[in-house]
Design a protein that fits this description.
Blueprint lengths: L6 H24 L9 E3 L5 H5 L19 H5 L11 E3 L15 H32 L5
Antiparallel strand pairs: 1-2
Helix pairs in contact: 1-4
């Protein structure tokens, strides 16, 4: 029977992702009055590498991200190719862009921080439950 990825490794990975999102949102808020600043967001982690190790019968699981090919028309309109290796991207989910070109809306950023706080609480609770199960399995109470 193949063993799945450790739940603790998944929790750790998600908490690192949430911490990075929190850091980027703090930078957005700090630049909320900077002329031309574009709000940024962190892309969701790619879990393909976790799945790749779990292939059954020699098969390797895979997830492919869509590839965007920029056309000359897209480039003429100002589109830039995505940066590779970076998980921080310009946030496309903004509610308004100010006349000075700044796309940071404090309300949007605070809503995102609330979601991050709830996700942190969820991950912390999962971690506590997992620790309790491990303690119970070892006979040390739980």
């Amino acid at each position: 029977m193949p063993q799945g990825p450790s739940i603790l490794a998944g929790i750790t990975r998600e908490m690192k992702h949430l911490a990075e999102r929190q850091r980027v949102i703090a930078q957005n808020i700090a630049n909320s009055e900077t002329v031309g600043f574009k709000a940024r967001e962190v892309t969701a982690p790619d879990f393909a590498d976790l799945l790749a190790a779990q292939g059954e019968g020699g098969r390797r699981a895979s997830i492919a991200r869509p590839r965007v090919q920029l056309t000359s028309g897209m480039t003429a309109l100002g589109a830039r190719p995505p940066r590779t290796g970076s998980s921080i991207v310009v946030d496309s989910d903004v509610s308004e862009i100010k006349p000075d070109g700044n796309s940071v809306t404090l309300e949007d950023q605070l809503l995102k921080l609330g979601k991050i706080q709830a996700d942190f609480a969820t991950m912390t609770n999962l971690y506590r439950k997992q620790q309790g199960l491990l303690k119970a399995a070892l006979g040390r109470g739980g």
